[in-house]
Structures are given as C-alpha cells and as structure tokens.
Amino acid sequence: MKNVFSTSSEIMHLYANKTQPSATNQSRNAFFQRSSLYSYGYHYKLAYFLDGGAILINDSGYSVTTSKHIGEISQASRHKKQFFSTSVLLNEVLRQIENLLVKLPKAKSRKLEYIATIKSLFNSFQNFQKYVKENKIEFIEWSNGELLRAQIDKRSKEYKRLLFIAKNMQNLDILENEVLEEKQRKDKKEATKQRQMIKAYREGKNNFVRLDYDLLSLRYTTNEEGKEYARKDLTCFVHTSQNVKLSLEEGQKIISSLEALQYNEELINKHLKGAKIGYYTLNKAQNNALHIGCHSIKFEEIKKLKKSINKIINLI
C-alpha cells in the first residue's frame, strides 16, 4: 500500500475519507495515523476524529504552513460534522470571550461584530458539549498525547467564570439593541443626506456625489458670466457624479449601441467589451449596469440620460 504522497492536500483528503490507516507527504510535514492528523509533528495535532464521526480541527496554529494545513483539512472534511478547537474547548472559548468583553466598552464601529462573535462562541461551545455528551466522550487525546476533558468539569473555575458570563448575556442583548438602534439612526441620517446630495446633483448644484454607482446628467457650456449661451450656441456634454465629462456625441454613440443590443448583458459583453468610452474602457456589463474603468453606471441611469438628450434635441 502506498504510504508517501506528493502533497499535503492529498494527505488531508485521504485522512478525511478514512481511505487508509496512515500516510505522509514527501515533505513529512503532514501525516496521519488512524484517527489523528498532525502538522509538522506530534506536538501539533491538526485534527482528530471523535466517536460518532465528527472531526475536531485544531485551528490555533499561526505559522504559514500550519495555517495552510488548517485550510486544507477544513476543505477536505467539509462533508463531515466539524468542530474547531478555538470555538469549542473551554479555555480557548473563555480566553476569547474575556478578551472581547474587555474590548467591547471602547469599541466604536465593531461593537456588533464583537457581540455576534461572543454569541457564536457560546453557541459553538454548547453544541460541542451536547455532542460529546450524546456520544459519551469523556476525554480527547490532543497534542503531545495530552488528555483533554471533553465534558466540562462544573467544579472548575473556568466553567464557573463562563457560567457567570452566560448569566449576564441579557446585558449583551440590551447593548446590542442599543447599538442597532443607534446604527439605524445613523443609517437614516446618512440616507437623508445622500438623497439631498443626489437631488442637488440632479439640479446641477454640485458636480460630485460619492456613491457605489455613477449618476448621469446633461450639462451646458456657459459664458463668462455663468449664463448659458443662446440656444443656437448651446453646447451640451454628458457629466457623471464622479465629475467625468463626455461629449454628447460619444454619449449618443454608446446609447445607440446599447439600444441595438437591447441592453442584453451577454451581447454587450460579446460585442462591446473593451470598447473605449472617452478615456475609459468598458470592462463588462453585469447586474444591469455598465462597468467602465472604476465607474459603474446602471442601465436605468443611461435610459434617463437618453430621455434628457431627446428633450434637448427637440428644443434645439
């Protein structure tokens, strides 16, 4: 039976599928023996098959290669029930939760993230405890042969500390609601501000609006006094909310091409991808928008521009 394989990825898949009792890669930095998988040596047990078929993955490693191994075994064993050591072992869970609780009062933008992580750690820990009890797992043979208690010792100071935190989870819920309410107020204020900026741009009162997509408008050349030229001398150009200017002729040309293709993204990508629009290149059409350089312009915005152009042509 072949026992040495080229890559660590092969070792991970062999182990995850229990294809054979042991194997190693050519570099000897990933190997397994029955239920145990190791990274670099017996000092770092990378994974362990628990009774009942679940896999416990040791995701506490920080080296580049071990981090790679963690990713590989996580991917190779995704068809199994997975537990990760930093989310289920009592000392690891308690350390992370206490660290987050220290950070929480001073956190500004990450309060909700910290609260969600704390709750997730509690849920993962409880799910693991339920699993080991159902499968009557008392100890886990970990790195260097260390025996870890799977079912928590309720007399331990670590458990009592975690229990104390759990009993005060209601305070976290209250804080979470307060943060969510504040976020909703800020979002509402920001949405109002954005609507005002868009309105000002539509009315020609500003040239720049920071959005995820570009707005389009027709702007007119003005004389030295800031007044529009007489209609016979009127010069129009296409303007975007990122302060990009495009001649009316170029704007009409691209609109005609899009209409000929009926704004079909597949046809646009086939026939117009790579086309030059002013100084920019059309990258692709996706999600009902053109992506031109670093700009995204929605089809509906282009159709609005077409109506504006038609009005100007009729006036002239």
Summarize the structure.
The protein is α+β, with helices and mostly antiparallel strands. It has ten helices and 16 strands.
Explain the overall architecture.
It is a single chain. The protein is α+β, with helices and mostly antiparallel strands and 316 residues long. It is built from ten helices and 16 strands. The strands form four sheets. Strands 1-2-3-4-5-6-7 form a seven-stranded mixed beta sheet. A four-stranded antiparallel beta sheet has the order 13-14-15-16. Strand 15 (289-292) and strand 16 (295-298) form a beta hairpin. Helix 4 runs antiparallel to helix 5 (111-134). The radius of gyration is 31 Å and the shape is elongated.
Summarize the SSE layout with pairings.
Elements lengths: L3 E2 L2 H9 L5 E4 L4 E4 L2 E4 L5 E5 L5 E3 L6 H13 L5 E3 H4 L1 H14 L7 H24 L4 E3 L5 E3 L7 H11 L1 H34 L13 E5 L15 E5 L4 E3 H13 L4 H7 L4 E2 L2 E6 L3 E4 L2 E4 H17 L1
Parallel strand pairs: 1-2, 6-7
Antiparallel strand pairs: 2-3, 3-4, 4-5, 5-6, 8-9, 10-11, 11-12, 13-14, 14-15, 15-16
Helix pairs in contact: 1-2, 4-5
- Structural classification: alpha+beta
- Oligomer state equals single chain
Average pLDDT figure = 90
Which stretches are low in confidence, meaning pLDDT under 50 for 5 or more residues running?
A: 228-233
